[in-house]
Amino acid sequence: MTSLNSHGLRFAFGTLTALPVRVTRWDRATARTGMLCAPLAGLVVGLLAAALGALSLLAGSGPLLAAVVSVAVPAALTRGLHLDGLADTADGLGSGKPAEDALRIMKQSDIGPFGVITLLLALLAQVAVLFQLYGEGGWAQGALGAVVAAVAARLALTLASRQGVPAARPEGLGAVVAGTVPVGRAVLVAAVTVAVCGAAGAVSGPYGAPHHALAVLGALAAAELLLRHCVRRFGGVTGDVFGGVAETAATAALVVLALGP
């Protein structure tokens, strides 16, 4: 079990980040453990994004540049794969083609108009919210938002990997992780993550805990809507769909943080 956990952590960080971690096992048992550990990978990505964004603000850059930095770091730490997945998923869904043709469109290397527009709006929304958080709440509030968004994004991947969600193709990352995580374990990880994010949000004021917990729940709800739509349209999930789910969750978490007190 200890060995499997070690391989699972390597799988999580080796597939969900660009950190120099070598994946030593590539099977469904390892994928299950890895996807259960996905929020930990999100925590590391979020902390790095928060640290560089906060340092930028404290160095006098202003909240807008700090927000851009906090959005750029997760993109760099995934080599843009999640953003690419979001764009490809948007192109596949927007094409209106049957599942087989839509999946072929998603595999193409170019990005179509639906992908460009979706990417632009998602990145603008992320930067806009972090600009608001850094500007109104200082470095601590902006940093916390960056961490919560990154954790929520990877938690959405844990739930998207649950049993009962099929793969759309027999090959690729989607096929390796799809349906590997028992539903009960996925829910448990989600409950713990929501509670931890809520506890972290308590430092931002009397409504901070429920607000940040609600941000994660809102992220999961948005990701679930996209996931179900993709399963209906494509017959299952792909690596691109996982990327789209992650970016949708991150954006939704930040949008919820921008609303309310």
Automatic annotation (TrEMBL):
Transmembrane segments: 35-58, 64-81, 114-133, 139-160, 172-203, 209-227, 239-259
Organism domain of life: Bacteria
EC annotation from Swiss-Prot or TrEMBL: 2.7.8.26
Primary location recorded for the protein, binned into one broad class: membrane
Pathway: Cofactor biosynthesis; adenosylcobalamin biosynthesis; adenosylcobalamin from cob(II)yrinate a,c-diamide: step 7/7
Cofactor: Mg(2+)
Keywords, in A-Z order: Cell membrane, Cobalamin biosynthesis, Magnesium, Membrane, Transferase, Transmembrane, Transmembrane helix
Membrane topology classification: Multi-pass membrane protein
Entry GO MF terms: adenosylcobinamide-GDP ribazoletransferase activity
Reactions it catalyzes: alpha-ribazole 5'-phosphate + adenosylcob(III)inamide-GDP = adenosylcob(III)alamin 5'-phosphate + GMP + H(+); alpha-ribazole + adenosylcob(III)inamide-GDP = adenosylcob(III)alamin + GMP + H(+)
Enzyme class (EC, first level): transferase
Compartments where found: Cell membrane
Record's function text: Joins adenosylcobinamide-GDP and alpha-ribazole to generate adenosylcobalamin (Ado-cobalamin). Also synthesizes adenosylcobalamin 5'-phosphate from adenosylcobinamide-GDP and alpha-ribazole 5'-phosphate.
Family: Belongs to the CobS family.
Protein name: Adenosylcobinamide-GDP ribazoletransferase
